[in-house]
Amino acid sequence: MSGPRLKLALEYDSTSRGRHVRDIVSELKRQHWVRGALIVAADGFVIAAELPGTIEVDSMAALAATLGRELETSAQRLGRPSFCTALFSADDGTMFLAASRIGYLVVLAEQQVNVQAIRGALAEAVGLIDAAWAGEAAG
Amino acid sequence: MRLWASRGGREPQTVPEALRRAEQRRREGRDAEAAALVARVLELDPDNLHAHLLAAYLHVARRATAPARQEFRWVLGHDANHARALLGLAGIALEEGDAHECRDLLRRALRFYPEFPEATALLEAVRTREAAPPPAAANATAAPRVDRLRLPGTGRALIIGRADGGLIASQPVADDAKDVSEALARTLQLAAATLGRAGLGPLHRAIVEDDHDAVFTRTDGDLVVSLALPRATDPTQGLLDLNRLWSATLHELGLAAGPPAAAPSSTPADTPVDRTRRVS
Predict the structure, then answer these.
(1) How many domains does chain B have?
(2) pLDDT at residue B239 in the model
(3) Which of A47, A56, A44 is closest to B106 using CA atoms?
(4) Phi and psi at residue A72, in whole multiples of 5°?
(5) Helices (H), B45-116
(6) Secondary element (H or E) of residue A34
(7) CA-wise closest residue to B154 among B236, B237, B275, B267
(8) Maximum CA extent, chain B
(9) Which of A54, A114, B76, B79 lies at a 20 to 30 A Cα distance from B206?
């Protein structure tokens, strides 16, 4: 990703984080063969989304958050490390899911998508979020 | 209701303003600040339903299930048909593996609010899960001879199961293989529902990575073959190994004609030949 510049946590004021998170979603959406992207909190709350109009955002977010939580709780029950990224490939496209400090990043892409490019973009997005929210104490 | 004196004009003056600001903080991913605002509201207005609901969400967001459940129940104690509280409790029930409770709560929410997309979507996912028969123990006669299924040199574990979570075979044989197979099935069912909601069609392959492993999975909706490899594994190579084991498994189960894969380097007919790391 070349969009949002990596900033230190202290550089963010109260309003810039909201804009920053929207920038991150926009940057993911700009990747080749990407149809849409969103960040959803673990409770299904949509933090930012850029999805095609054919997809109902709230229900998509609810399912993505439930899937993310299932991956986390399964790993916990089995005594294994929690997931970092997941990819689900279907007939008509691929869905990527990445865990971050503030929620799950979701990318919906065409079949032709370059998997490594999206994985790289997601890793960078998670890094940006971690850097920006480093000072945020657990609620 | 006035809450606290302004200091520099940035602090909320009223309960509604504080709650609005808490919502805004959530939208910015600033959950700790949102929680502080909600806690302050609840100190001053302990029966504020909106604040209890927000508190429940914030507990879910930080994976604190018990206090989240308590807050959702508090809301339902004051509004028995509160759709969002019912949805919240349904999510917790699903997380805890109680699909019946989840379905009942969602139906209750939809009875009063039929146009509730999140509840509808989750209910579809739960129905998918419940439509599958309960996992059965592996049938020794149907189990493939997994010793004939050669794991790649770096392979850590192989799980062969059914889409309902029933374990067919594992390599190496492990005590938790049945639990892994069931967890895998739950994940794939939710992933399939999510892909369906996104209009991407039926699920075929998955790669789930943690700090140590990359788990490559293939399914046709009935059979599930899952191979754990080191995280550093090239995705294309992982998928090649997975496809080889998929073909060999079909052969061992008598579901496909032709000889079993003989060596890790064998490449089944449906293996992607493109090396640009595309997986669909």
Answers:
(1) 2
(2) 94
(3) A44
(4) -70, -50
(5) 49-61, 65-78, 83-95, 99-112
(6) strand A34-40
(7) B237
(8) 79
(9) A54
Indicate the residue type of B139: N
CA-wise closest residue to B194 among B129, B130, B238: B129
Q: Nearest 5°: CA angle at B205, between B238 and B174?
A: 65
Q: Which CATH class is domain A34-130?
A: alpha beta
- Phi first, then psi, for residue B218 (nearest 5°) are -130, 140
Q: How confident is the model at residue A20 (pLDDT cuts 50, 70, 90)?
A: confident
Domain that holds residue B177: 146-252
CA-to-CA distance for A109 and B235, rounded, in angstroms? 17
ipTM reported for the complex, 2 dp: 0.88
Per residue in B9-63, pLDDT tens? Answer: 566 678 999 999 999 888 888 888 999 999 999 998 999 999 999 999 999 998 8
Distance to chain B for A103, nearest Cα, Å: 8
Chain B residues inside the 8 Å CB shell of A55: 197-199
Residues of A in contact with B194 (CB under 8 A): 60, 63-64, 67, 88, 95
Residue from B10, B24, B28 to probe the interface with A (highest A Cβ count within 10 Å):
B28
- B201 vs A93: CB contact, 8 Å cut-off? yes
* B101 and B179 belong to one structural domain: no
A66-A70-A72-A74 Cα dihedral, nearest 10 degrees: 170
| Residue B155 · residue B241 · CB < 8 Å | yes
The pLDDT, as a whole number, for residue A19 is 82
